[in-house]
Amino acid sequence: MDILKILGLFVLTAIAEILGCYLPYLWLKHGHSVWLLLPAAVSLAVFVWLLTLHPHAAGRVYAGYGGVYVSVALLWLWAVDSVRPTVTDLVGVGVCLLGMLIIMLGPRYA
User: Fold this and answer.
1) Is 71 left (phi over 0), alpha (psi -120 to 50) or beta?
2) Largest CB tally within 10 Å, which of 27, 57, 98, 108?
3) What is the mean pLDDT of residues 53-64?
4) Does any domain span residue 110?
5) What is the signed CA dihedral for 78, 84, 87, 88, rounded to 10 degrees?
6) 30 lies in a domain?
7) Measured between alpha carbons, how far is 4 from 92 in angstroms, rounded to an integer?
8) 28, 58 in Cβ contact below 8 A?
9) Which pLDDT tens digit goes with each residue over 60-72?
10) Range(s) of the domain holding residue 94
11) What's the domain count of the chain?
12) Helix (H) and strand (E) counts for the chain?
């Protein structure tokens, strides 16, 4: 699978997971409607389904996904919570993405 497709799939997966967790947070912490649990459950089901679309072993997918998740979570922090990431946030994202690339593009030994 092409690296850009994998990256795009990781980004969609992260958005589905974050949304699936953010909606119950709105209900529990901010008094929004309990009905937010329905789209949250759908979003988490989509998250799990998206993880199954990756061509690599599950453990490698989860490890690689972690780097992208951290990046998308900080973008969410900025876009949804209106909190600008700090320099250390950005350095941390860079380290996470480098780790993800090493895991996903590294050689495979038997």
Assistant:
1) alpha
2) 27
3) 79
4) no
5) -60
6) yes
7) 22
8) no
9) 788 888 888 999 9
10) 3-105
11) 1
12) 4, 0
